[in-house]
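Q: I'm writing up a methods section and want to include an example of the input and output format. Could you take the sequence below and give the corresponding predicted structure tokens, formatted cleanly so I can copy it straight into the document?
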Amino acid sequence: MKTLKSVGLILILMVNLGSYAQELDANLQFRPRYEYRNGYKSPMVNGENAASFVSQRSRLNFNFKQEKIKLKLTLQNIRTWGDVTTTSTADKNGIAVFEAWGQYEFSPNWTARLGRQVISYDNQRIFGEIDWAQQAESHDAAVFSFHPKNHQLDLGVVLNANAENLLEPKTPYTTNYKSMQYVWYHTAFDKINTSFLVLNTGYEFEKTPNNLEVDYKQTFGTYLTFKNNKWDIDLGLYGQTGKSSDKKVSAWYAGANFGYIFTAAFKASLGYEFLSGKDQDDTDPVIKSFSPVFGTNHAFNGLMDYFYVGNHQNSVGLQDAYLKLNYFVKKWQFNLVPHVFNAPNRVLDASNKKMDSYLGTELDFTLGYTIQKDIVVSAGYSQMFASKTLERIKNSTDASNTNNWAWVMVSFNPRILTLKQ
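A: Here is the clean output for your methods example:
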């Protein structure tokens, strides 16, 4: 609490003592979420019981603006109710810095942003905030942006280390990527928006004892959107090459979504995603499985996170055909999304025979209700109907078990301070 008071006083003084036009905005977010997990991420194992818990995000956001300068500081605490005793003298996770960056405007078209920041582009398939996760995702980066009318060109650079070392460490930096560079370009032509991304990520690994190397993997591609009064279409195409842990990478991704607004209250979308993978009997050392890198993967391929949310890496890939049904009425929002999953590459049973490519069907139902502008209640229920092939991939015991997940979340987002001078 002393830390928060000190930060607030410093920022208020910055506004009161400056001679330039200044603005300070502060807001809070409290987001408790109850979850019931019964086969979440993987089919339920015989003899195991479902888990229930409440997690919570607590955030304090400061935004400061002065002439050509912008600053942002976001402090957060992530907790599970009960992870410390009621008389504990210390919090388990403490207060962490989610965002802490400064931005300078060289001209109306040129800016530079340095520090801990969210990097999010397009539909967040490759770069995203991962806001569903209570801790979310941010990067220590320098981002330079050129943004004249109808165009934006961003250049991002990252160099990570685990400490202020005097000498190069002898053990690999495995908790994060070692370096990153990317270029993102976006432009608009009438009803068409086009983006191009080239991303280079370097991960350190131990090639031989006391011999560390950094392999670089490149992700490149385009994202297109088209909108008119009724239609809403998007298309993404990405490839991956380079090396990872001394192995060559050759993978690709394709995704498309076609949406149509039937009425002011009802919209339907039909979509498909293909993420390349590798046959289980393929002995080629080349990595052929596409990785979404820093994407908000929870928003894709089913809300039960069976694929690409801390799992399903370097696997058989995925085909996901889905239908989105969205209905809005007054303060309510309802969504129903069925997914049909297939493996694009061979899955083998215990006797090395090819299994059916069908992985399962997932149904995701969510709803939201806006109590007032800064309080929203949302909830969801999902169920996975898993196949024997999915059971095999996940090393489960009985795909016929009921696999479902339910959650309820309340998000408070009040603005607590606005100062202008």
